[in-house]
Amino acid sequence: MSTSELIPIDQILPNKLPIITLVGKPIFPGIFTPIMIGKEPDIQLVEQAISTDGMIGLVLQKDDTDEPSAGNLYQVGTAAKVIKKINLPDGGINIFISTFKRFKVKKYMSKEQPIIAAVTYLDDTNYDTDEVKALTRALISEMKQLSENNPLFSEEMRLNMINIDNPGKIADFIASILNIEKKEQQEILETLDVRERMEKVLIHISKEKELLRIQKKVQAEINEKIEKSQRDYFLREELKAIKQELGMAGDARSSDYQRFREKIDSFNLDGEIKEIVEQELEKFNLMEPSSSEYMVTRNWLDLVCSLPWNAPLSADFDIKHAQKVLEEDHYGLKDVKDRIIEYLAVRKLKRDSRGTILCLVGPPGVGKTSVGRSVARALGKQFFRFSVGGMRDEAEIKGHRRTYVGALPGKIIQGLKLTKSRDPVFMIDEIDKMGISYQGDPSSALLEALDPEQNFSFRDHYLDLPFDISNIFFIVTANTLDTIPRPLLDRMEVIQLPGYVDVEKIEIARHYLIPRSLERNGLAKNQVKYTRDALLAMIDGYAREAGVRNLEKALDKIHRKIAKAIVIENKQEERFVIDKHAVEKYLGKPIFRDDELKRATRPGMAVGLAWTSMGGDTLIIEAVANPGKEGFKLTGQMGSVMQESAGIAYTYVRNIAAQKYNIDAQYFESRQIHLHIPEGATPKDGPSAGITMATALLSLVLGKRIKDRLAMTGELSLTGQVLPIGGLREKTVAAKRNKIKEIIIPAANEKDLDEIPEHVKKGLVFHPVTRMEEVIDIAIGS
User: Fold this and answer.
1) What are phi and psi of 337, to 5 degrees?
2) For 714-766, how does the pLDDT look when each residue is reduced to its tens digit (9 = 90+)?
3) Kind of pairing between the strands at 55-60 and 16-22
4) Is the pLDDT of residue 2 over 50?
5) What is the 3-state secondary structure (H, E, C) of 436-451?
6) CATH class held by domain 9-121
7) Homologous superfamily of the 319-496 domain (CATH)
8) Would the annotation count 687 as a binding residue?
9) Backbone angles phi and psi of 146, in degrees to 5
10) Per residue, what are the HEC states of 542-585?
11) What topology is assigned to 126-248 in CATH?
């Protein structure tokens, strides 16, 4: 064969091809392009191909796996010849290929890398019709428009497109340079009908033109906004200069700066505070209002300017006026008022506001919060109250760092900002109900605020400047001292507020609750009159608790019903008299009844006195003996201390029963004794029920009832000593509410009787004892 004769391409293309897998997009026939080869199996395939005829097959992967197999490849690919190979420093190679023709895989000779496939070559169809010629012109025309507006199309691309004379190759070339998804490009590669292929490419050109139009529109809008922003900036600067020349007010930032500057200068700050505030103010003056830091710094400066840095301290108070205010606002509470007046007298003598923090402790509804308000009124100071009950985040006390989104100062600084005073009265409610969580311990955060040795330079996290809060009069409230951390409690002067007895509740109702409730419900002062029996019936049947909150609710309920009668039945002029019978009419059946009073009605029962966070309470202790194996069972939600007390009582009674009462040991060995304290759902703990449990057990063993209307409290030792207890005042009030006549108390608590008001002790007989034998003599008899 002479060299002048041309050999058809089909005759030089081999029937088996080594397959190079493509990840990005397929490569079309008629293209000269470089390919990077990095995987070792592919490099070996290329080396083998170069050593023979240089032919390889290019097939697209269906996904981007690093180790493709035959099942992961499309069936149609492109045959190509390696023209040149360049070795790369990283071990890979760069090859330049010339692509010839489409092929379809008939069979894979090896399905794992290196992949070899037997192929059959594919020819274009339907390529010499008038429709194809028209589509060719349309394609070239559309691509000219597209390339003119797109800088990514080079002049070389435009020339190549015009010089290609084969319609199928024109469609392939355009498909290869358009931004089309790889699946759609593979679909075009697999389309052998030239007319259909060209139609598909035209559709993609139309989509590209639409995207280009939208892109132009978006770009134009962005450019317009940028130009407007720049124009506005220059105009604002010119306006600022003009206003400055005319002596007019500046922009909002300048106005804020001037306001902050005047306010800060008036404070006469010095030292660290002045230095930091000046720095922040100058930084604020240089900030653009659009800056993210602008509002953070502005809010911080606003807070600094709102605080009473040099506000004058309150004028000296009149102690007699303070005494009068406390008497006006609260009935009874003599000891509490005396303690507060003593405390105020010391402050007046020292002329120094620094000192102890008052802690008002008592059951709910006895007036702890209102005492705090009265103290503020008596001193003529601003009052700020916040509750820490359930608080778990120390940032509530000391604020957040101002770098956080939505940061706020703590309650102390907020209170100073609101009161605009350096020496207000701050009431911190429910200090015994603070919690600890991953967000910190609020009680520890309060330590600095409540310590007179530290709080002259209190630092809030948000403000981050030392502020003197030593002039604040802190009053905290709690229901119990048990849950207050000891370091916090050490900083406070504790004042106990006891519960009220019936006589006190009647006076409180007459002087405070009834007038307040009448006004709240729109009734005139003389429109409703209560008899003493009616008030007693309400206290005894509906509000038998330490405080007066339920009594006030009962009064509100009656007054609402009266208001309804006045409006609906038109009884405007009528005067309502509430007697004992009217109480039941308005409030329904009593919640508490006399037959519910806790009394020891049979052997094995005794009445004890307990102290809880709700005030004093009476406990009935029950014991029964059942035949069976020896045992001692306890129920009624007793805590560990109370369970130990029960064990001591059982051991003591078993010992004394044999020695003094000749009860045979067989009695205990053949019985299981069960001791129970109702109500079973209420947790109980503490040692003060020791003598009560021993009395109940001995009453059961002897089969004798204890004396009626007798209650007792005291800790029992294993040898029969009666040890002192706490909360005698609250327990006495509870006994009075339960119609108790006699109370057995430890002799060591006899001194505490002096602190109990005479009207509470009236009608009660106290039996101070030192030994359990004395308790038995009083309660059961010899």
Assistant:
1) -65, -40
2) 999 999 999 998 878 888 888 887 889 999 999 999 998 887 878 788 889 99
3) parallel
4) no
5) CECCECHHHHHHHHHC
6) mainly beta
7) P-loop containing nucleotide triphosphate hydrolases (3.40.50.300)
8) no
9) -65, -40
10) CCCCCCCHHHHHHHHHHHHHHHHHHHHHCCCCCCEEECHHHHHH
11) Methane Monooxygenase Hydroxylase; Chain G, domain 1 (1.20.58)
Of residues 501 and 388, more confidence is placed in: 388
Q: Are 440 and 393 in contact, with CB atoms under 8 Å apart? A: yes
Question: What token pair was written down for 510?
Answer: 């007459």
User: Quick one: pLDDT band at residue 4, thresholds 50, 70, 90?
Assistant: very low
Which are the contacts of 85, defined by CB distance < 8 A and separation ≥ 6?
Answer: 46, 50, 93, 94, 95, 96
User: Per residue in 42-65, pLDDT tens?
Assistant: 888 888 888 888 898 989 888 877
| 29 carries a ligand binding annotation | no
CATH number assigned to the domain with residue range 502-594, chosen from the 4 options 1.10.8.640, 3.20.20.80, 1.10.8.60, 1.10.3720.10:
1.10.8.60
Residue labelled with tokens 């045992």: 631
304 SS3 class: helix
Q: How confident is the model at residue 253 (pLDDT cuts 50, 70, 90)?
A: low
Structure tokens at 451: 């310590």
Catalytic site positions: 688, 731
Task: Consult the annotation and say whether 65 binds a ligand.
Answer: no
Annotated binding residue 364: yes
Given a cut of 90, whether residue 768 has pLDDT beyond it is yes
Q: If residue 691 lies in a helix (H) or strand (E), which one and from where to where?
A: helix 690-702
Ranges in the chain annotated CATH 3.30.230.10: 597-779
Q: What is the pLDDT of residues 654-694, one digit of tens each?
A: 999 888 888 888 888 899 999 998 877 677 777 888 999 99
Select from 37, 23, 124, 118 the least CA-distant residue to 82.
37
| CATH number for region 597-779 | 3.30.230.10
